[in-house]
Design brief:
Chain lengths: 388, 388
Amino acid sequence: MRDVAVIGVGCTNFGEWWDRSFRNLFVEAGVMAIEDANLAGEQIDAMYVGNMSAGRFIEQEHIGALIADYSGLATENIPSTRVEAACASGGLAFREAVIAVASGMANIAVAAGVEKMTDVDTSLSTDALAAAADREWEGFVGATFPGLYAMIATDYMHRYPLTREQLAQVAIKNHYNGARNPIAQFQKEITLDTVLNSTMVADPLRLFDCSPITDGAAAVVVAPLETAKKYTDTPIKVLATAQASDTIALHDRRDISTLDATVAAGNRAFKMAGLERKDIDFVEVHDCFTIAEICAIEDLGFCKKGEAGRLTAEGYTALDGNLPVNTSGGLKACGHPVGATGIKQVYEAVLQLRGDAGKRQVAGAEIGMTQNVGGTGATVAAHIFGRT
Amino acid sequence: MRDVAVIGVGCTNFGEWWDRSFRNLFVEAGVMAIEDANLAGEQIDAMYVGNMSAGRFIEQEHIGALIADYSGLATENIPSTRVEAACASGGLAFREAVIAVASGMANIAVAAGVEKMTDVDTSLSTDALAAAADREWEGFVGATFPGLYAMIATDYMHRYPLTREQLAQVAIKNHYNGARNPIAQFQKEITLDTVLNSTMVADPLRLFDCSPITDGAAAVVVAPLETAKKYTDTPIKVLATAQASDTIALHDRRDISTLDATVAAGNRAFKMAGLERKDIDFVEVHDCFTIAEICAIEDLGFCKKGEAGRLTAEGYTALDGNLPVNTSGGLKACGHPVGATGIKQVYEAVLQLRGDAGKRQVAGAEIGMTQNVGGTGATVAAHIFGRT
């Protein structure tokens, strides 16, 4: 396999965009990424797009072809493939693009992610998202995602020393970072009171423990490392790409507070990169709910089970801490257009490693990691990136 | 890239199965393929599954994880990825599995395809399928797939010498072949009268010009060619994997009677395999409607534009003709569970090349081809297979 590098990135601002369609959003992100890589469209060999549920949100499938067409690439007849793994769709689309270039099947590949969620009302979007869980054994009996993650939080807080206040610190930190990210849906700092006095969604999770419903798109361009310098002065090397599955239903897990797919994908990624946890300078994790960030930090092996709440409250994961987590603001403050999130994580990692992250720059960042979760952990993608 | 071979295949019988769920169907096909390859489940490194619209048909997304889980492989945490490209979902899932093994990222990969279409009524399934076309510019103004292919047929018959009787011969041939295929939904021969007197669906296409709504699943196992003999005495080599895109809307095409994505994917496949058209002993094409088979034969380069109708009527594409087309019975007689069709085509090609196709065996078949179409031709996958 050839080494692969990211040579261009683009991302729309995330939000509730009634004036821009699904098509507008991905074209905007795609053009940014292609221009950032100093490419012409016809130099692209392959496209992969992560999207969870355009079928339910905008009644459109066949998203790969749609994207190639509306990006003006239909006349080139380039292969364009949609990948779906619920909220991990973007992470998996990136991984397939990396594999295509590593194999030699493609030379320059675009990995994109897109979701347009606000064209339907909240009851339909909640139901569409519930299709990421086990419809027959979870959805049909009324389980929705806030409810499922509330069960994880309840189990976790019963077994480990995590306080309600520590959990709130995840949201406070991510909003602090999001306030320094121009693409974030919520660019506003919040306080402990904001979280603790917000509406209860599913006990113990309140409104400010939950990521929002969002429209957005992100795109990145990958190429063989050996030719990457032809396109950019700052190629970012893909040091590892890993993926793992688990049971789709939460109740079938060995342990509902540990995401075994995160453990497996993390271990595989570190093995592939030949690195240790201490080598990582920052990490973007999948904080669809505050409890998910707590689990992710532990399940990736950055601390022992039960310690992440205390470490978060102590500032260990803050922008100036030992291991900055979710410098972008995470899903919590950036917003969570589900198919786009995994690609937005790669976008953030690349900006950090280029030194282009502005007010949220991690000083001297050399190696970064991303973790993208589908459902309650039935699919996890983990990637590690390094400066070249 | 490593050479890749198919080492195991499985397929459910296709039909309207109210007693078997989506989950039952893919587990049945997957177990058949794994047993056929003499493997244990834990030897599998990766899974790719083609599915168009479980989100609309059974309100379930996150199909990769679901399949890994219900196949008993969740405890192995193997990567499992859903690929979607409308009716070409299966062909693209197969292609990603081949790329994963060719790259070295996986050693043994399963490519599966599944669709459960009969749990909803026909108006919903027709609307779900319309999501393969351009929803904003085709679906919202009332275009459905029979209507779109009827436009292709009308344009074609205006410009080329294709008679209504020649078109019917496609259906008659495919039902003849399907009557010799134990997995086909319709195992019954038909006559010219059956086709010409069947209900008009969208002029000039009648009921027997159209493939049906179907439940079914198919799975194949791929491995590096160099180790394939460890698992089977009859590995089938993947000589080429190719894919191409075109505009999603029919009205945006250069020529609506020529599928440029078929032309491009076909040319790429022949170039990759280093073969010529005359080297192909049989081909499985995407006959979602009779006119689609006529276009496919021509667009793959097996004859000139305008000749396929006459050649079909003369028996050129019959089981004992010069180029047997759709020996399985095609989508017309086998049925068309959309995500499964591309994998079923590979299943048929492998059976033919092993000499295991029973009453529909093409004598001395050495090299076969498959062509799988998404929408009206916005995505096409083309594969070439050979005996080893």
